[in-house]
Specification:
Length: 563
């Protein structure tokens, strides 16, 4: 029998809460739980969040000592049949397992319809958070909307788990794994839609092929899909491929201790630096993108929320009084292409009002909300990191509420800033360096206790365009003396300048194989890729020098697809 079980640490927390309540009648605070286990409050908050999702306890947000254990009666457990195995890979014949059930809480499934469960075999749906060994709960139905994950029967009796799409006179069964191809069929029988995933934490080793040199370890406890990644100041501004705070926090707690000096050699907008400040670690951050440096400095500066709120209200009052003839509109190439005149005037008024704040930390904090407002007030597709202009009727109707966007963003940021102000440790320092991680940058050799970083996913031409994303904001908030220089940021980042040839001295057979494959399609793309890895190698060698002997270097990477 399967049940949505807590992890070992979560079970220990439940046991502690149970004993505490029996002894003292009332519930423990997050601080008391954290002290008992010797971890931070944010870590306990994360575990409590998981336990709430698993319906093992309840807790009222913002209310002290509100944690309550839920009895089985309150949880209303229900058994549903586990019918067998479903392929998340190549379709297989349906395999039925008689007389096996799983137990879940009633509120985890819809009230309408019948449900059954299947054990997943394969990794074709990993980007949807469905892994080999997991169990999926299915609601029986014969139809599905485009994009829903379904149990599909093809070729009479072959079953597979895929996302369903209708295309002209055929069906596309789409895997959620970039290494696999879709399946096309004229006819598909739908047997149900996935409504819940139950993670199998015991199936953590993927042995791979017998001829492979290394064993790949899959630890599902690192999957933070669905968790709140916008706590503290993490959510004050969008940035490409942001580091997941829960990952940074776990690495910091596992491989460093309070008072240590951390370094993130590709700090981006400062996720690891914020977590270091909360966990009482000193931290260096290095990045080559000026906007990233600006954001990281604003995110890691604790500001009294009362002072911040007073300045914000005063700013709104000033904004109302600014006349059109008092503003100075920025001058940079193609401003009329990216912004409508009405938006330019309102943005210029906002900028003037923010510039009137004397306190630099508060001014920069509110300038972050302005930077995000610039993106949403522009004529760009805000869902993309590359600069792409909206077209046609959408462009004609585009009439952004500039002041409304700013107010919404600023107020959300102030709330997050207040949370960070409470938890940030005053004795921990943060130093953010605008520079190249392959160079010295003033950090002494053998001085860093732990390096935690997530490198860029590649150069801007083949993967994430960090510079393009930053351009319009950088031009408005005066990061550059000449705003037109903002368009050249991508050239300065890793892989920004392609190599002249494909000759290199990096000792990697896998890289050579990949370069050969890319070069057959496009030799210039292969040169872009090689330039990135030469630069990355130089950065890693420098990082090794600043790290103390026998200390940890935590490198978080993801799959990269070169288009």
């Amino acid at each position: 029998m399967w049940i949505n079980k807590p992890s070992k640490r979560q079970a220990e927390i439940l046991q502690f809460i149970t004993k505490f309540q029996r002894k003292k009648i009332y519930s423990p605070s997050l601080g008391e739980i954290a002290n008992n286990f010797g971890v931070s409050i944010p870590t306990i908050h994360q575990h409590i969040s998981y336990l709430r999702k698993k319906n093992l306890l309840s807790a009222n947000k913002g209310k002290r000592r509100s944690i309550q254990l839920l009895s089985d009666k309150e949880k209303e457990l229900v058994e549903i049949p586990l019918l067998g195995v479903i392929a998340a890979g190549q379709p297989i014949e349906t395999i039925e397992v008689p007389d096996e059930t799983i137990t879940i809480t009633k509120d985890e499934i819809s009230k309408q319809g019948k449900h059954y469960a299947l054990r997943v075999q394969g990794n074709s749906m990993i980007d949807e958070g469905i892994f080999d060994g997991d169990i999926v709960v299915i609601r029986k139905q014969e139809t599905a909307d485009n994009g829903q994950t379904v149990v599909a029967i093809i070729d009479d009796d072959q079953a597979t788990l895929k996302k369903l799409y209708r295309e002209k006179n055929k069906f596309r069964l789409q895997p959620a794994n970039p290494t696999l191809f879709p399946i096309y069929r004229d006819e598909v029988e739908v047997r149900g839609v996935v409504v819940k995933i139950i993670r199998n934490l015991e199936s953590q080793i993927d042995k791979g092929r017998p001829d492979e040199k290394y064993t790949r370890r899959i630890d599902y406890s690192w999957d933070y899909r669905g968790e709140n990644t916008k706590t503290y100041t993490h959510g004050i501004h969008t940035y490409p491929a942001m580091f997941i705070p829960q990952v940074a926090r776990r690495l910091l707690e596992t491989y460093s201790k309070e008072g240590d000096t951390i370094c993130d050699i590709f700090c981006g907008s400062g996720t690891a630096l914020v977590e270091s400040k909360v966990l009482n670690r000193n931290a260096y951050g290095i990045d080559l993108n000026p906007l990233a440096i600006f954001l990281a400095k604003a995110k890691t500066a604790p500001i009294n929320p009362k002072k911040l709120t007073r300045e914000y209200i005063a700013l709104l009052n000033r904004l109302e009084k600014i006349k059109n003839n008092e503003i100075k509109k920025p001058i940079f190439k193609n401003i009329d292409f990216w912004f409508k005149e009405k938006a330019v005037i309102k943005l210029a008024k906002l900028k003037k009002a923010i510039r009137g704040i004397k306190d630099k930390a508060i001014r920069n904090f509110l300038m972050v909300a302005f930077s995000e407002t610039v993106r949403y007030a522009s004529n760009t597709k805000t869902g993309e990191f590359k600069l792409v202009r909206i077209k046609g009727e959408k462009l004609e109707k585009h009439d952004p509420d500039v002041f409304g966007i700013f107010r919404k963003k600023a107020e959300a940021n102030i709330a997050g800033g207040g949370e960070f102000y409470k938890e940030a440790k005053r004795d921990a320092w943060t130093k953010i360096i605008f520079g190249d991680s392959s160079k010295e940058n003033g950090i002494k050799e053998n001085s860093i206790d732990c390096i935690i970083t997530s490198p860029p996913y590649g150069d801007s031409r083949t993967t994430v365009a960090y510079g393009q994303f930053s351009r319009l904001s950088a031009q408005w908030i005066d990061i550059f003396d000449d705003p037109n220089k903002a368009s050249g940021v991508d050239n300065e980042l890793l892989g920004g300048r392609a190599t002249k040839t494909l000759s290199h001295t990096l000792s990697s057979d896998y890289l050579n194989d990949s370069l050969d494959k890319i070069a057959k399609q496009d030799e210039n793309r292969a040169k872009d890729v090689l330039s990135f890895y030469i630069g990355l190698n130089d950065c890693l060698k420098r990082a090794y020098k600043i790290l103390k002997p026998k200390k940890y270097f935590c490198l978080v990477i993801g799959n990269r697809l070169v288009k």
